[in-house]
């Protein structure tokens, strides 16, 4: 029979997401969660130490008893199976990491435990998009396109209006939509391409150059502005470079002050576990919610309602009763 620790680990197998804070490396997030899961699994009640029968030799000092040694059976614990000898039941738990975030970025980071790593690989091979919120500022250019980089140039931005910014973002989005169709392996004049585009499945097979599937300004108060981005095969450095290029198109300069991922496929900020909830119990609950949502999606895709089955069953029953009455 599986031990309590093994049964708990099986409930931990799956996919979940956490909120990675800014200025924290993703490896530190993963290592912290691995340590917390190990503590949680090994803190369960251990199985009792098995016992074995041994014949122990003892001498009798009672008066009148026969001289010599006596052998008596006794159940003693198997010391080689004792937790103090074998150590914790789980020595290591490997946590897989999905689409990574660099150190200065924050937001949704998808992780997997056990057989959930297979699901993580499947997510890599699908055309799922990711959403980001970019905090930007006009008036400065740096060597790495971030506000903490080495300053290369300063410029004015009084001539920039929200309409001009929206025209530039629309131009970039149109160029990326053209690239999306170019990298797709489907014939653009076919019915298949139309149906895939209607479902949002049109995109490149495997890795390609970064593609922006959506780009819009959601806040404009010069010199600061905020962009909302949907993209494929991106890196956070590429997104900062996009902000730099927007500044150049507007005859100015711009830097990215913050990158936050708000969605990675099915996972959103509402699903992400914050730093205070990286325990085994919270991870187990998050994985259970993910499996429940997947089951609900299957029900939506294949809606078989019990009421429909009951109605059809009652109709069939009534038909048979009418036939029986007619035969009688």
Automatic annotation (TrEMBL):
Pfam families: TruB_N. Gene3D superfamilies: Pseudouridine synthase. Signal peptide: none annotated. GO terms for biological process: pseudouridine synthesis; RNA processing. InterPro entries: PsdUridine_synth_cat_dom_sf, PsdUridine_synth_N, Trub2. Residues 90-236 form the Pseudouridine synthase II N-terminal domain. GO terms for molecular function: pseudouridine synthase activity; RNA binding. Coiled coil: none annotated. Belongs to the pseudouridine synthase TruB family. PANTHER family: PSEUDOURIDINE SYNTHASE-RELATED, PSEUDOURIDYLATE SYNTHASE TRUB2, MITOCHONDRIAL. This is TruB pseudouridine (psi) synthase family member 2. The gene is trub2.
């Amino acid at each position: 029979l599986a031990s309590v620790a093994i049964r708990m680990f099986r409930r931990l197998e799956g996919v979940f997401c956490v909120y990675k804070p800014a200025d924290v490396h993703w490896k530190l997030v993963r290592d912290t969660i691995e340590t917390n899961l190990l503590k949680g699994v090994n803190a369960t009640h251990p199985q009792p130490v098995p016992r074995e029968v041994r014949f122990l030799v003892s001498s009798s000092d009672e008066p009148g008893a026969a001289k010599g040694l006596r052998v008596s059976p006794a159940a003693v614990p198997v010391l080689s199976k004792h937790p103090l000898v074998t150590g914790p039941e789980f020595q290591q738990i490997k946590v897989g990491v999905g689409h990574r975030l660099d150190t200065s970025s924050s937001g949704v980071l998808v992780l997997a435990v056990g057989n959930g790593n297979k699901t993580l690989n499947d997510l890599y091979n699908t055309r799922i998009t990711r959403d980001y919120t970019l905090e930007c500022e006009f008036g400065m250019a740096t060597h790495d396109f971030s506000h903490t980089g080495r300053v290369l140039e300063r410029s004015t931005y009084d001539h920039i209006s929200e309409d001009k910014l929206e025209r530039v973002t629309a131009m970039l989005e149109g160029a990326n939509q053209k690239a999306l169709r170019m990298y797709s392996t489907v014939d653009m004049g076919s019915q298949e391409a139309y149906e895939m585009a209607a479902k949002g499945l049109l995109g490149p097979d495997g890795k390609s150059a970064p593609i922006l599937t959506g780009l819009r300004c959601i806040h404009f108060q010069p010199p600061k502005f905020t962009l909302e981005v949907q993209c494929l095969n991106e890196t956070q450095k590429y997104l900062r470079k996009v902000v730099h290029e927007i500044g150049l198109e507007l005859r100015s300069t711009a830097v990215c002050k913050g990158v936050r991922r708000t969605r990675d496929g099915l996972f959103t900020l509402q699903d992400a576990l914050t730093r205070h909830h990286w325990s085994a119990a919270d991870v187990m609950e998050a994985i259970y919610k993910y499996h429940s949502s997947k089951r609900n999606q299957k029900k939506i895709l294949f809606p078989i309602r019990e009421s429909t089955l009951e109605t059809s069953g009652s109709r069939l029953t009534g038909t048979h009763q009418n036939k029986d009455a007619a035969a009688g």
